[in-house]
Amino acid sequence: MIKKILLLVLLSPFFLYCQDSMTGQFSPKEDFDFAILYRLTPTGRVYAQDTKIGNDGRLKMNFDSLSKGSYRLVYNLPEENNYFDFIYDGNEAVSFTFSEPTGVVFTDTQNKILNEYLKEMEAVEKALNSELTSESPNTTDVKTLLRKQIDIQNKAENESKNTFVSLFVKANKPYIPNDFKNRSLYYGEKKTNFFSNFDFGDMQLQSSSFPLRIIEKYYEEFTLIQGSTFYRSLINDIYFEVKNSDSEFQKTLLAEFWQSLVNKNKKNAANYLADNYLTDLATSQGDAVLIKKLDLFKNLSIGAKVPNFSWKDKNGNENTLYNTDVAEYYVLAFWSSDCPYCMENMPVLNEKMNAINSNKIKVIAVGLEMEDEPWKQTTEQLTNFIHVLRKNEDRAAITLDYNVTGTPTYFVLDKDKKIIGTPQGQNALFGIIDTLEAYKKQ
């Protein structure tokens, strides 16, 4: 009996460990209800498990069935804005605290090492780039910052020796010269050696957010140094680094990079990436959804001619967008009588157009409707617009053609129906209208 009790005492820490492979404390506790765990893979994320967060803000998860790798914890909606990544070595429990706006603070050994290393290195790199891009860089200050980089790297490598996290610490090691001579030489050598410590063929690195992180960092840093017009050569450099890795991983990574460029409004760079590399990868792998997404974005970028569509006016006459020739500029406004925000904004836009010569700027208002009657009643009050009704399948089709994800959505076109503006919101739209009106008066 005594032996059994002793055995239970010895094993009890093991049982407790298995029960809670991840523990976390969220604050304020009333703002967090659930958590979803995803495993990161070379081609995206895979659902692992989910759980409720306790009323006290405490999270517990069992990782018994999970293997070593990188994971993503979603703690609120929308998922793309409310998550953090971490590593799990298959043995050590993961622990953290989370509060807003501080974010996540890890207390387990390996994630603490990694996140402190990344934060410290990022701060020094920011200071270093600030000094180097100043009018007259101070050589002494630059060398001091470079020594700090060496100290941070050595400290993290020593602390992580013979552990899973060492892979990520070594892969993220920046270029640090043995001796600093001048700014031009430093950036030239850094550009050449930027990816020298990162293995895009490593499965664990592929299954993390670090590949995207490092190519974004390269693009942003050397866009700043060389200028935004060098986006083509920088994208070529990035593809050269990843081209020998698995093709599915390439497609996933470059699609994420493309989306990052889109989100940052770098449309020319996004289209160059798609035209020269990403579309070919998507085509070779039969990814029709991605191909459509890339084509749609390109077709709705500044300078592109928008898709044509037709409608019948109140007299039954057939019209098309391309054949409409009543003004020098056009505003395509996608709206709905079911949309409260539209019902506030469209009358204001109608009033705005009272002061604009309709031969200069004309609004074509496309109603995305479920029924005719509410739209008919509303359009009777909006007399300064050309009205187009889209219902059912026609509504779905034009929504896809113009990538309308919310209403109102605006496109400003020239007389050839090429996009010259995609304002976000009515204030931005009015700014473009005022600019065009002032330009035409000169």
Distance between the termini: 100 Å
- Cα Rg: 28 Å
Helix content: 40-55%
Q: Briefly note the structural class of the backbone.
A: alpha+beta
Protein name: TlpA family protein disulfide reductase
Domain Thioredoxin: 300-442
Keywords: Signal
Organism: Aequorivita xiaoshiensis
Describe the structure in your own words.
The protein is α+β, with helices and mostly antiparallel strands and 442 residues long. It has three domains: 2-107, Transthyretin/hydroxyisourate hydrolase domain (Immunoglobulin-like, Sandwich), CATH 2.60.40.180; 110-299, no CATH class; 310-441, 3-Layer(aba) Sandwich (Glutaredoxin), CATH 3.40.30. The protein is 48% helix and 20% strand. The chain has helices spanning 2-19, 109-132, 139-159, 165-171, 183-193, 203-206, 210-226, 231-242, 247-263, 267-284, 288-299, 340-354, 372-379, 392-401, 426-441; strands spanning 22-27, 34-41, 44-52, 58-61, 69-74, 83-88, 94-99, 103-106, 310-312, 318-320, 329-335, 361-369, 385-391, 409-414, 419-421. The strands form four sheets. It has a five-stranded mixed β-sheet. The protein has a four-stranded mixed β-sheet with strand order 4-1-7-8. A hairpin with an 8-residue loop joins strand 5 (69-74) and strand 6. Helix 2 (109-132) packs antiparallel against helix 3 (139-159), helix 7 (210-226) packs antiparallel against helix 8 and helix 7 (210-226) packs across helix 9 (247-263). It starts with a helix and ends with a helix. Residues 300-442 form the Thioredoxin domain. This is TlpA family protein disulfide reductase. Residues 1-18 form the signal peptide.
